[in-house]
Design a protein that fits this description.
Distance between the termini: 143 Å
Shape: elongated
Subcellular location: Mitochondrion
Structural class: alpha/beta
Main location: mitochondrion
Keywords: Coiled coil, Methyltransferase, Mitochondrion, S-adenosyl-L-methionine, Transferase, Transit peptide, tRNA processing
GO molecular function: tRNA (adenine(9)-N1)-methyltransferase activity; tRNA (guanosine(9)-N1)-methyltransferase activity; tRNA binding
InterPro entries: MT_TRM10-typ (IPR028564), MT_TRM10-typ_sf (IPR038459), Trm10_C_MTase_dom (IPR025812), tRNA_m1G_MeTrfase_euk (IPR007356)
CATH topology of one domain: Alpha/beta knot
Order of helices and strands: HHHHHHHEHEHEHEEHEHEHHEHH
């Protein structure tokens, strides 16, 4: 038996195993050779010891488990990866066949392609991805061309500007900046104070505070370039407040170099109360003339929701005099609230301070809010009112005449 077993092993090693190695069947025949050798050994043991019995069921279970382990070791790639690879090969074949297939496809799109129920659905999905890819490519090409045209235009403009600029213009701009700063420095000593009330942060949202700071920056720039600038005061200004952070974003390094006065005190603590006038659109008192001896207060607030009476209530609580601009007296008001932006208020106050002319000052009111000035010919005002009320409100001519008679004095009536 031992000699037969050894002979069987030699035959397997010399003839069967080389043949299996050439055809990739070595792992499949290895359990068979082991089974044959084991069976011969078992027979030899059985002949020597006939009293021992072999449990064939246990032996089959052991052999099956070993075979399954060897088969599982041969499979290295997951099923999902193999299916994705097969799908990519299918797409490559369709692309070579001339079908509408995208060049770049992600794994999620590939999984969606595999989940399509039919071949026509897969074709439609691939066509959709192909068209989407072409659209993105065209958009990118257009954006690149637009960017190149813009850069070329900027280069041409910079070349023309360089030819136009001269040393005289550079010296002129630097000299004017020095002159503006000198005027602002003089206004801090001799100029009329103008107060911005910075105590409305809690009444506004973050976006409204940002808009307020932007308008104040425009107001400060306009004031610095005027002939006779105001001495601007920021009162009730808190450190590290939302106002403060927005000003630093706007001015950056120039924030500490501004020629203005910033204080956390209230304006009633800095100036006497009898000289303070709070400008608010809700005031019942109308401003008639610009007083150079008074100190005007402007609320630093952008009110998108039109919260009426906030600044008026603050002024009454502090016992201050209030005033409103005479918009109804000089302007034929059309629509909208009578609240103006802070930079518009700065333009109006500067013009009043220099010229004392209300018509020139109120030209900074947006044209969309009024039809014209009241001192125009009566026929022109009547025609404008008639057109507005007829188109917008659908009123008749008689009702328009009644409204015109109520709104204006008797000397402007039509006979």
């Amino acid at each position: 038996i031992q000699s037969a077993n050894m002979l069987l092993r030699k035959i397997v090693r010399s003839s069967v195993l080389p043949f299996a190695a050439q055809h990739g069947m070595k792992k499949d025949l290895f359990p068979l050779s082991r089974t044959l050798s084991l069976s011969l050994c078992l027979k030899q043991d059985k002949s020597c010891e006939p009293s021992e019995k072999l449990d064939l069921d246990e032996w089959k279970k052991v052999m099956k488990s070993g075979l399954q382990e060897e088969v599982s070791e041969t499979v290295s790639e997951p099923t999902e990866l193999s299916s994705l690879a097969a799908a990519r090969e299918t797409l490559e074949m369709w692309r070579l066949a001339g079908r509408a297939v995208p060049e770049n496809i992600s794994e999620e799109q590939l999984k969606t392609f595999m989940e399509c129920p039919s071949k026509s659905a897969k074709k439609k999905y691939l066509r959709y991805l192909h068209l989407k890819e072409l659209h993105k490519r065209n958009e990118k090409r257009k954006m690149d061309e637009k960017r190149e045209r813009r850069l070329e235009a900027q280069d041409q403009a910079s070349k023309t500007d360089e030819t136009k600029k001269s040393s005289f213009m550079c010296v002129w701009s630097s000299t004017m900046d020095k002159a503006y700063n000198w005027r602002a420095a003089q206004s801090m000593i001799f100029g009329q104070p103008l107060v911005f009330d910075m105590s409305y942060e809690k009444e506004m949202s973050v976006r409204e505070v940002t808009n307020t700071v932007s308008q104040i920056v425009l107001s400060e720039s306009c004031n610095r370039r005027s002939v006779d600038p105001f001495h601007i005061h920021f009162c009730n200004f808190k450190e590290d407040s939302l106002y403060h952070r927005e000003f630093i974003k706007q001015y950056r390094e120039a924030w500490g170099k501004l020629l203005i006065t910033v204080t956390d005190q209230c304006y009633t603590e800095v100036f006497p109360k009898d000289k303070l006038i709070y400008l608010t659109a809700d005031s019942p008192k109308v401003m008639k003339i610009f007083d150079h001896d008074k100190i005007y207060i402007v609320g630093s607030m952008v009110d998108k929701s039109i919260k009426t009476g906030v600044s008026l209530a603050r002024a009454k609580r502090l016992g201050l005099e209030t005033a409103a601009l005479p918009l109804d007296k000089y302007l034929l008001w059309s629509t909208g609230a009578k609240n103006l932006t802070l930079d518009q208020m700065m333009h109006i106050l500067l013009t009043l301070k220099d010229t004392a002319d209300w018509e020139k000052a109120l030209e900074f009111v947006p044209k969309r809010k009024y039809c014209g000035f009241v001192n125009k010919p009566v026929k022109e005002l009547k025609k404008t009112l008639d057109l507005i009320n007829t188109l917008k409100l659908g009123k008749g001519r008689e009702e328009v005449g009644k409204q015109f008679a109520k709104s204006y004095s008797k000397k402007y009536k039509l006979k």
